[in-house]
């Protein structure tokens, strides 16, 4: 009799333990929220950009937040976003470091962040970039933790575009960044090209004008016991910036810009951005869900 009671109590304890574990699993699943992401297409027929000083934190109010260091870094006309890089105020501060010439006073250009973050999905930008050495035009996915995927063009090297990625801010020079020729033999400024980043949990694909030029597999990035593959929700960034800085930046961007002889502004153009959020990992918001943007 005593033995039977003991068996019963042990069985009861096991059942209760299993129920508690199961309830915790259900509770954790309920509290796990998907990233809120907005799928949209911006043809720049309307100005849906808000300056950071005027942004109230409501992502529904605009497509983009202008986080540029000065106003006047863009204009919108005839379905095109004109990105503007302005000459720095004062002297350019030309100097030499171990990597060559560089400027200590840097021009101010466009820097836009999407109002929503994306946790896996696809973004495409139709862009005509600037050809002047030292001018960088970029499409990036960037997380708060330092995860990043890039499409970048640098002036002077007009027949190529560059892909790059960072994991928690870490980067291996010559490995993570790759230079690509245009599949059709074009140039960065001869016409609009479509730059695409298709970011998934297991692989990321970069393409130009619909042609894949690079594939990054998560499985190939296993190091120190972890997968060093960007996986955090990220903002979409559009930028035009002065690559004349020191510590190797000017050398990489074919700069520095000689602002003493250069025009006061340099321009790049964007005519369409398409964002498609992966519904498996995001709670997807569309234009139809958002009255403020569909008026």
Automatic annotation (TrEMBL):
Protein name, UniProt field: Glycoside hydrolase family 16 protein
GO biological process: one example: fungal-type cell wall organization
Species: Gigaspora margarita
One cellular component term from this protein's GO annotations in UniProt: fungal-type cell wall
Keywords associated with the record: Glycosidase, Hydrolase, Signal
Coiled-coil region(s): none
Domain GH16: 31-261
Record has tRNA processing as a keyword: no
Superkingdom as given in the UniProt entry: Eukaryota
A GO molecular-function descriptor: glycosyltransferase activity
Signal peptide: 1-23
PROSITE patterns: GH16_2 (PS51762)
Database matches in InterPro entries: Beta-glucanase-like, ConA-like_dom_sf, Glycosyl_Hydrlase_16
């Amino acid at each position: 009799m005593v033995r039977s009671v003991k068996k019963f109590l042990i069985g009861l304890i096991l059942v209760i333990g299993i129920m508690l574990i199961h309830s915790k699993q259900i509770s954790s699943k309920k509290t796990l929220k998907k990233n809120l992401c907005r799928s949209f297409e911006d043809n720049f027929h309307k100005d849906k950009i808000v300056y950071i000083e005027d942004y109230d934190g409501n992502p529904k109010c605009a497509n983009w937040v202008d986080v540029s260091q000065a106003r006047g870094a863009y204009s919108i006309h005839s379905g095109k976003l004109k990105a503007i890089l302005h000459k720095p105020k004062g002297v350019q501060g030309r100097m030499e470091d171990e990597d060559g010439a560089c400027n200590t006073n840097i021009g101010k250009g466009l820097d836009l962040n999407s109002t929503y973050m994306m946790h896996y999905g696809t973004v495409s930008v139709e862009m005509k970039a600037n050809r002047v050495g030292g001018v960088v035009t970029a499409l990036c996915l960037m997380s708060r933790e330092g995860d990043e995927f890039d499409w970048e063009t640098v002036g002077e090297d007009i027949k190529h575009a560059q892909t790059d990625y960072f994991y928690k801010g870490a980067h291996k020079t010559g490995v993570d960044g790759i230079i690509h020729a245009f599949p059709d033999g074009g140039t960065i400024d001869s016409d609009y090209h479509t730059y695409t980043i298709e970011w998934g949990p297991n692989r990321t694909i970069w393409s130009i004008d619909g042609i894949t030029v690079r594939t990054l597999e998560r499985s190939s990035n296993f190091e120190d016991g972890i997968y060093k593959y960007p996986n955090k929700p990220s903002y979409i960034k559009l930028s035009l910036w002065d690559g004349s800085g020191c510590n190797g930046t000017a050398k990489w961007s074919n700069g520095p810009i000689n602002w003493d002889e250069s025009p006061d502004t340099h321009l790049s153009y964007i005519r369409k951005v398409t964002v498609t959020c992966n519904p498996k990992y995001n709670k997807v918001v569309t234009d139809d869900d958002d009255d403020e943007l569909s008026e």
